Amino acid sequence: MTRLGFTRAVLRGEEGRLLAAALLGALALASAAALTATGGALISRAAQRPDTLFTLTFLITGVRALGLGRAALRYVERLLAHDFTFRTLARARTRVYAALVPRGRRLGVQVGAVTHTAHADVDALQNATLRAALPLLAYLLLTAALALAVARLSVPLALGVLGLLLLAGVLAPLAACAPLARLARERAHARAALTAALTDTLHASAETATPQDFSALERTLERADARDNALLAVLTFARESAAAAALLLTLVTVGGAVLSGALPGAWLAAAALGVVTAFDAAAPLAGVPGALADAAGADGRLHALTTAPIGTAAPPRPTRVPDRPDLHLDGVRVRHGDQLVVQDFSLHVPHGRAVALVGPSGAGKTTLARLLVRDLDPDAGAVRWGGVDARHLDPHELHARAALMEQDAPLLSGTLRANLRLADRALPDERLRALLNDLGLAHFDLDGWVGEGGARLSGGERARVALARALLKPSDVLILDEPTAHLDPPAEALALRVIERERQGRTLIIITHRPGPLALVDDVLPVGVLPAGGTSPPAPAPTAPSPAALALTPEAPHGRP
């Protein structure tokens, strides 16, 4: 795996905003230190009752300017930092969701783990930017600037302050990096497991966790947090000790210069307060190792998710998908574990033909559809597009050239428009509304929220939205798995008319238990009862359902249409 590959891809082109925010943060920190130093000098000089007010006026003006400047710099720094963060957050989420779309069917029942990666891990990258990268860069810039400023008073003092600042803000957190990273990984694993358990339980997964599992995970998190707090207390002690040492060193060095008459007395308060204030900037750095460890683990999981194979592994030198391809299944055999799902099945579908796959549940019809889009490879035999083995084709192009409507096609929690445009981002609203009208969904608002998994829609409405999305995708091959299973007869008739119109020029494969869709096809193939090597008969389009179609019985629709 490329180290921090996902993070680098997301940050590419945004480095300038990050550096600008860090520079403004350093200026804000420097303004705070200078404000404290100037205030100390003002109080000390006023206590001396100078003969002229010019010196006090200059210091008073400096305090006002630095106070306003610190607030303005901090505001602009936060503005730039959050602009940078939200830009990268949007790019990260878009990258994750774009990767999930073609890989969704391979994720199986890992809903909780995927949810954690898509949300919590992306948030971990955002937190690493705000709580680690920006504070660390700003602190290093402040340290360099303060060392140069103090060097005008005393080079040995500047070197001592520089060393103590690096000890408090860099070396001490670096020493705690390994144990904090271990705790971060332990906490991340426990949180991921807890999220997965909660999500899978809410989805009624077969792998539902028990109350004892939840209690154990919560105890693991509590122990990790306790050890984390103990390490942070050690880092706080180290920072305060370094600040005390820097204060003592400053008092001795500058105090000696004041006593010798080399510096005015007000410089002692200014130098001491300015140096001590600079150490306050090291306080947020105690969380840097943990944030970086969280981000490193999150990056690894996100990189693995977004670079996982689409269906199966891509060939080293992929071949372009032929134009207007015929589809061939040549003696394919597929096993799921020890169960033989498809045995020696062959099929030839010329481009533009329509075929229905029928048969009992579990006969392997959906498996054949997954073979055609190369969501899986056969254990034996071959799948060919235009005479080219699918294992030699570019999987991204293959996915783009096929539109697959699954029986329970997922809808994302978003607007209806966003769900439909997963088929093609460039689709105009007019095209979306026209197709929805034809499917009997004219009352739907494109800006309407469909809910998680389409929860705000009925079963029939979800099926028609999924059908519309498949039909809208520009493709050579259209595969529909039970497209009318949830529809009543009037809604089914509308859907079939739309399918007939939209499939023109495309190869159509329908998986169905119902007789209605069979009127659209040229051939009907019973799956699970063909002899080994059986093929699609090259008969012309029938004018009436075949005997296989007549043997089918309609199912009752599920939910309202």
Automatic annotation (TrEMBL):
<dbReference type="GO" id="GO:0016887">
    <property type="term" value="F:ATP hydrolysis activity"/>
</dbReference>
<keyword id="KW-0472">Membrane</keyword>
<dbReference type="InterPro" id="IPR011527">
    <property type="entry name" value="ABC1_TM_dom"/>
</dbReference>
<dbReference type="GO" id="GO:0005524">
    <property type="term" value="F:ATP binding"/>
</dbReference>
<dbReference type="GO" id="GO:0045454">
    <property type="term" value="P:cell redox homeostasis"/>
</dbReference>
<feature type="transmembrane region" description="Helical">
    <location>
        <begin position="132"/>
        <end position="151"/>
    </location>
</feature>
<dbReference type="InterPro" id="IPR003439">
    <property type="entry name" value="ABC_transporter-like_ATP-bd"/>
</dbReference>
<dbReference type="InterPro" id="IPR039421">
    <property type="entry name" value="Type_1_exporter"/>
</dbReference>
<feature type="transmembrane region" description="Helical">
    <location>
        <begin position="157"/>
        <end position="181"/>
    </location>
</feature>
<feature type="transmembrane region" description="Helical">
    <location>
        <begin position="52"/>
        <end position="73"/>
    </location>
</feature>
<keyword id="KW-1133">Transmembrane helix</keyword>
<feature type="compositionally biased region" description="Low complexity">
    <location>
        <begin position="546"/>
        <end position="561"/>
    </location>
</feature>
<feature type="domain" description="ABC transporter">
    <location>
        <begin position="327"/>
        <end position="552"/>
    </location>
</feature>
<dbReference type="GO" id="GO:0005886">
    <property type="term" value="C:plasma membrane"/>
</dbReference>
<keyword id="KW-0812">Transmembrane</keyword>
<protein>
    <submittedName>
        <fullName>ABC transporter, CydDC cysteine exporter (CydDC-E) family, permease/ATP-binding protein CydC</fullName>
        <ecNumber>3.6.3.44</ecNumber>
    </submittedName>
</protein>
<feature type="region of interest" description="Disordered">
    <location>
        <begin position="534"/>
        <end position="561"/>
    </location>
</feature>
<dbReference type="InterPro" id="IPR017871">
    <property type="entry name" value="ABC_transporter-like_CS"/>
</dbReference>
<dbReference type="InterPro" id="IPR027417">
    <property type="entry name" value="P-loop_NTPase"/>
</dbReference>
<keyword id="KW-0067">ATP-binding</keyword>
<keyword id="KW-0547">Nucleotide-binding</keyword>
<keyword id="KW-0378">Hydrolase</keyword>
<feature type="domain" description="ABC transmembrane type-1">
    <location>
        <begin position="19"/>
        <end position="202"/>
    </location>
</feature>
<dbReference type="GO" id="GO:0140359">
    <property type="term" value="F:ABC-type transporter activity"/>
</dbReference>
<dbReference type="GO" id="GO:0034040">
    <property type="term" value="F:ATPase-coupled lipid transmembrane transporter activity"/>
</dbReference>
<dbReference type="InterPro" id="IPR014223">
    <property type="entry name" value="ABC_CydC/D"/>
</dbReference>
<dbReference type="InterPro" id="IPR036640">
    <property type="entry name" value="ABC1_TM_sf"/>
</dbReference>
<dbReference type="GO" id="GO:0034775">
    <property type="term" value="P:glutathione transmembrane transport"/>
</dbReference>
<feature type="transmembrane region" description="Helical">
    <location>
        <begin position="245"/>
        <end position="270"/>
    </location>
</feature>
<dbReference type="InterPro" id="IPR003593">
    <property type="entry name" value="AAA+_ATPase"/>
</dbReference>
<dbReference type="Pfam" id="PF00005">
    <property type="entry name" value="ABC_tran"/>
</dbReference>
